[in-house]
Amino acid sequence: MDVLQNLFENNRRWAGRIKRDNPDFFRTLSNQQNPHYLWIGCSDSRIPANEIVGLMPGELFVHRNVANIVHHSDINCLSVLQYAVEVLKVEHVIVCGHYNCGGVNAAMTNAQYGLIDHWLRPIKSIYMKYRTELEAIENLRERQDRLCELNVIEQVANVCHTSIVQNAWERKQPLHVHGWLYHVEDGLIVDHNVTVSALDQIDSVFHLTQIKLP
Description:
Elements: H1 5-21, H2 25-31, E1 37-42, H3 49-52, E2 60-65, H4 75-87, E3 92-98, H5 102-107, H6 116-119, H7 121-129, H8 131-135, H9 140-160, H10 163-170, E4 176-182, E5 189-191
Parallel strand pairs: 1-2, 1-3, 3-4
Antiparallel strand pairs: 4-5
């Protein structure tokens, strides 16, 4: 394990720096978790969720996967969402993609990469949905980036279509779902103004009604 010794050294320096700045930080952190935000982002190593929004450990609950996709069959993502909404009572769910996303770019090709092809299939469906708009964009990079934006918009919708989020709204629990994109080139976030905060902001065909069993 000597090859990873530098990571342990980095960890000790990081922990020491935190303790110097706030001696009670880790003791307080170990006794509670009270984030106001759930971050659903891409697994890309260039996007450290806490750092780019200036939040400390304990302030941001995080779920990451390739291309920040919210699959309705993904028990991992849905479990994180349910815990964040129902137990932690987060007030904001942020779906944050990024420009020049490798997963999105891969979904635009016919190349075969393996298991990831199945994971990225929903992005191909998004491409089909917006094909006319996308194929009117001649520059490939601009077309890829527009698909990154559309992917975030669609994943925000997928979050809102879950019973988890809709039940929270029915309980009058404050909950807002946002769609952002991150520029790796300059470190800045763009808000795409697709925030959804109530059931009446999504199409009624996706409304879910709880059925009380006898």
